[in-house]
Design a protein that fits this description.
74% of the residues lie in helices and 0% in strands. It contains 22 helices and no strands. The longest helix is centred in the last third of the chain and has 39 residues. The relative contact order is 0.12.
Amino acid sequence: MPAPDAPVVPNRALITVCAMLATLMQALDSTIANVALPYMQGSLSATTDEITWVLTSYIIAAAIMTAPVGWLASRFGRKNLFLVCIAGFTVASMLCGIAQSLGQMVLFRLLQGVFGAALVPLSQSTMLDIYPVEQRGSAMAIWGVGVMVGPILGPTLGGYLTELYNWRWVFYVNLPFGILAMLGLMAFLPKGQVNAALRFDWTGFGVLALGLGSLQMMLDRGQDQDWFSSREIIVEAVLAGLGIYLFLVHLLLAERPFISPRIFRDVNFFAGLVMMFAVGMVILASSALLAPYLQTLGNYPVETAGLVMAPRGAGTMAAMMISGRLSRRVDPRLMMLLGVLLVAGSMWDMTGWTPDVSQRQLIVTLIMQGAGLGFVFTPLQVIAFATLPVASRTDATSMLSLFRNVGSAMGVSLTSTLLARNIQIMHAQLASQVTPFSRALQTGGAVTRLLDPANARGAQMLDQIVNQQAAIVAYADDFRFMMLTTLSTVLLLLLMRGPKTAGPAPAHAAAME
């Protein structure tokens, strides 16, 4: 029989499709605008620094508004909040498409982030509620495809729409998804409970918004501003630390904080948060590193680089479907261990890459990496909620989304900073060996004459070679950092408890599959 917390829900398949459309819409929009930025820059008369606010405004608004999703769902009802957020996100997308100035675009992207922040946690908590325990792994696999594959498909779809039409269609594409999702949920999603007596914790929300907003600003602008040599970054770091510290104190001492502190006392969920943070770091940072590696070091055209990276997404989808099917037969912790080892193994292989690495090895390694991420992500959604009270699910899904997003932002910032610094360090170390006393420059052959540092052409060619070798070493160091980050999560598996064993699936559940 279904679990008592998941009664039989009519039209479950249709609700799933509509929730997935909302998830996919939000996940796509996190990356779809990236490739269109140069085209927006000309249309909106913006500088290179100014146009990045199109991305930053969305990310900051989404980060701040993710935390109170649980409270909003309890106060106004999950269905009501879901419908308002889908409608608001769709309208904000249309406004972005018709924006005529940078100020309008930044304002409308802020609105997109405000309404879009709730879509992923609401769709996840909805699917957790409408599926019984024995089907929850399969449900999370389906949901995870939208979350994981959306950001991967975003740049490809954005580039296609921009090339074929113009950059405004990057936002117009949300209209059919939004209308279908809203009409479907309006018709089929059962009404949730509304607690009008709840009062909002403005103090807690204010200090958390200060901390998250400042942290996101610091991470987004740190590399451009040379980190802590900039007064702006120092101020943002202080505000981020102050805001997060005050929020933690308020969480522990306030009578009714807008996030219930009891969810952090659940060992499974707390360990899941930390693991989700690490997964977020690896997912986005590895993608952000792969594209420039293939294009700048491997000399791949943009289209070819995209095709070579596509098998990573295919590996993720396949692993999610397999892990969803196995969730009733295999301990989720074992599947997560397999996933961690696959990701770490792929990163170890990448530490030995050179620009001459074969496409076959590239594709095999990326498939293995994608499969590893899939084997971690789906079981993690199951085990993180295995021992958590039903009433805490929406709060918990919003926290899980928040930790994934913050982890992604920190992963990209850390790896890009390490890459830039290590290239400089390795360039200095390698250049110190290029002297008239170096045996490589004393052979007297044609190569020596070509690379003679005494003339401008030879010095330029030598510098290019040193730069390339320094970049190869720096990328390898980044891949090694991500490998160690991934392996460290194995310790979290020891803290987790397995979910309660469910009985055999009932006839109606088996028929759905």
